[in-house]
Amino acid sequence: MQTVILSDAEEAIRALKAGELVALPTETVYGLAGLGLNPEVLAKIFSAKDRPTFDPLILHIARPGQVSQLASEVPHDARRLVDTFWPGPLTLVLPKKPHVPDLATAGLGTVAVRCPKHPLMRKIIEKVGVPLAAPSANLFGRLSPTSAQHVVEQLEGRIPYVLDGGTCEVGVESTIIGFMPDGVYLLRPGGLPVEQVEHMIGPLKRMPAQIVETATSQAAPGLLMKHYAPATPLVMIDRFEELKPGDGVLTFCGRPQGHLGPIMELSPRKNLQEAASLLFQALHQLDRSGVPRIAALRFPEHGLGMAINDRLSRAAATHGPV
């Protein structure tokens, strides 16, 4: 199979309606999209990504009001989040309706739903006429793609189409909030700062990351301790003195003096939004640079820095101590 890069959204719509997979741009990262209520198409997504079926998918809708088509219940606080933050980089895990395929939900009684902000993605969902499943368009556990080229680098020959919509504005996956019987949980920090959610509905419970050794169904995508990893070993550091000669360096702001090796400074202006938008692009570049190790200086643990640290810590856990 040859992977074709499309520039025409109408071609992508026709392919999706025919049950094909198309990598699509969103404001967070590129998603590998397919008909979200068709188990045969969902199986293609898992196969193309080498993704285990115990890791559920997010179903994407065109308009906020469509959440009730997938969720059997939308609690009051969930409705407040929908009204305030959708369309946007926020996913809600809610009780599912019976027609939602078990393959989309890892067999659980909940469904992950998002209304994306990217206008092209929403237009495509609207014209296809059904929710689209769209996990990140990469191999499972690897770096997320924020450009069409990133998609091709990992999925060339595995999927038929990529729609080139430029680079992704937010640059990290959505924040996931789970409405569970015992409370409301932060399942994954992401493109919507957690502080904004807690300001509206109060403190969130936390769910520890899991190193899964058996096929245990996950409450939401991105919960595995080992995830988002470059092929190059990555380590998180707290100060430049921990660097080794030849390391590829990833920093928020500031550069180590005299270091011999590539340095990616994400935001000299100390803007976490800018840093998040460039995170995966920088990691892709460092991964291609041939360095023996990537050293990422820990980011401030607030706002989007929480999401950045989450991605880096999971990437570091993939390779173990280096």
Automatic annotation (TrEMBL):
EC number(s) on file: 2.7.7.87
Alphabetical list of InterPro entries matching this protein: DHBP_synth_RibB-like_a/b_dom, Sua5-like_dom, Sua5/YwlC_C, Sua5_C, T(6)A37_SUA5, TC-AMP_synthase_SUA5
Compartments it resides in: Cytoplasm
GO cellular component: cytoplasm
GO molecular function, one term: L-threonylcarbamoyladenylate synthase
Keyword Nucleotidyltransferase set for record: yes
Catalytic reaction(s) noted: L-threonine + hydrogencarbonate + ATP = L-threonylcarbamoyladenylate + diphosphate + H2O
Family per record: Belongs to the SUA5 family.
Identification of the protein by name: Threonylcarbamoyl-AMP synthase
Source organism of this protein record: Planctopirus hydrillae
Origin organism lineage: Bacteria, Pseudomonadati, Planctomycetota, Planctomycetia, Planctomycetales
